[in-house]
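Lecture 7 notes: from sequence to structure.
We start with the chain below.
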Amino acid sequence: MRAIVVRHYKTTSNESNHIIGWGDAPPAESWQDDLNKVAEILLSTHITVDHIYTSSLHRAINTGKFYADSFGIKDIYSSPAIREINYGKLVNKNKKWVEKNIPEHKTNSDFVYPDGESFSQMQERSVAFIDSLSLQHPDETLLIVVHAGVIRGLVCHYLELDYNSNLKQHMGHQYIGVFTIEGKTCVRYNELGRPSEFVREGVIEVPYYLTNQAVNE
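Predicted C-alpha cells for the same chain:
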C-alpha cells in the first residue's frame, strides 16, 4: 500500500497557538492556500488516489472533502482511530501555558493528559488502523488526512525513530508524507510537500529506505 499522509487545513486555534486535540475550530481565513498547494503537488505527480480516509474530526473530514473534489473521488471514509491525541482538560489552553505548567508535555510519550490519553496510546491506535488499511488495500494508493500528532507517531513508528525525542517535530499544513507499506512494514518513506522538521533538522534524509530494495514511487 502507498499511503499519502497529509495534514488537515489550518484552523483559528492553530493560528492562535491553542491546544485543540479532540476539539475543533473554524478554518483560518487562508485555509485553502495550503490545501491548494498540496493538491497542486499531488496532481503534478500524476498519482492516482484510489480512496480517501480521514480522522473523524471535522477539520480532517472537511479537508478530505476538498481533496475528494480535487481528485474526482465520490466517497471518503472517516475513523476515530486516527484522531489527534485526546488532550482532555487541556483543550483550548494556550500552548505556552501548557509548556510552562505541564513539564511532561511532549517530553514523555507515556504521560496521560488529565481526562485524556498519552501520545503512546494515540500512536498505538493510529498505527493499528494504518496497518489494517495496508492489509485491506495492499496494491492501492490511499490519501489519508490526519493531524500533526498522528503524523509524528506514524513517522516514528514506521521509521523506527525514538518517540520521546521527536514529540516536538513540526509538521506543517503543506506536509505530504508518502509511506510505502508492505504488510505492516514501511519499506520506503518520502516527503513531497514542505519538508517536515524531521527532514529540516537532519533526523532523516528522504527518500528514506528501511530495506535494501528500492521501491518505485
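Points to note: Confidence is low (pLDDT under 50) at residues 212-217. The beta strands are 2-7, 51-55, 76-79, 141-146, 176-182, 185-191, 208-209.
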